[in-house]
Amino acid sequence: MLERVRGGDADAFGELFDLHHDRVFRQAMRLTASIHDAEDVTAVVFLEAWRRRDAMREVNDSVIGWLLVMTNFVFRNYARASRRYRTGLEQLPPPEHAPDHADAVDERIDRDSRRAALRRALATLPRRDQDVLTLCVLEELSTADAAAALGIAPGTVKSRLSRAKARLTELLQQDPAAAESTASPAATEPTTTNPTTTNGGER
Questions:
Q1: Distance CA 34, CA 121 (A)
Q2: Contact call for residues 192 and 186 (beta carbons, < 8 A)
Q3: What letter would DSSP give residue 134?
Q4: What end-to-end distance do the CA atoms of the chain give, in Å?
Q5: pLDDT for 146-182, tens place per residue?
Q6: DSSP structure class, residue 191
Q7: How many other CB atoms are found less than 10 A from the CB of residue 90?
Q8: Pick from 87, 178, 183: nearest CA to 124
Q9: Nearest to 4 by CA among 48, 50, 44, 46
Q10: pTM higher than 0.70, yes or no?
Q11: If you compute the radius of gyration of the chain from its CA atoms, what whole number of angstroms results?
């Protein structure tokens, strides 16, 4: 299938999309504040996958690691563009007699305080820490597969993962929303493992 995708076969790319869409969307949901944003990020990820199909890094006959790292990359660009857009809107005068829905929107976005706390903590970390946590902890790839996806040595993955988990734990402990809950910071996703306890080792 990958050979067909790289050859420009749109049907094969449709198969790849169906195969990996849910995991990419799940990662986008971890990073974004709404389903709409996650859908936008997911769409851009697969657009980039098609555009850069010759550059997709393959690990064990799969490109899921490359797609997940691309999801983080797309989200960072999306977040910067969204901030610029909001800044522009703030410069406009408010419409007369318009109801203020800001509080309701904020309440809906942060309804799940644990997921919001995890999102804030991940956003604070450097890009390389976000990527290694995504692959080894959130998606439970082995150290070897994560190393191959990132193009670095397995030992580097292990050292980065150790530091990233320690920093993530520290950030979550400092977040009032996370501190209010005794559950795992990723408890909203049953298949997600607590980043403070997963060893990220070989599977």
A1: 17
A2: yes
A3: I
A4: 25
A5: 999 999 999 999 999 999 999 988 988 887 765 554 4
A6: T
A7: 8
A8: 178
A9: 50
A10: no
A11: 18
